[in-house]
Design a protein that fits this description.
Elements: H1 10-22, H2 27-41
Helix pairs in contact: 1-2
Length: 63
């Protein structure tokens, strides 16, 4: 993975920190997840094989 410094306002960091805690992720992983989702929605990044459009793992729904 490429490493680089990211400067964001404290208020935004705090929001990501709370969001990450809600989803049991690190702040770094949360920021990456949001960036990947945004890039996919914008058509800038292809979806991985075996994933659904909502980002969950592929396969048949339970039931």
């Amino acid at each position: 993975r490429k490493q680089f410094p990211l400067r964001i306002p404290q208020e935004l960091y705090d929001a990501y920190e709370a969001w990450a805690a809600d989803e049991f992720r690190s702040v770094n992983a949360q920021i990456e997840a949001v960036l990947v989702d945004a890039a996919r929605r914008a058509g800038r990044l292809r979806r991985r094989p075996g994933t659904r459009s909502d980002g969950e793992a592929g396969g048949e729904p339970p039931g």
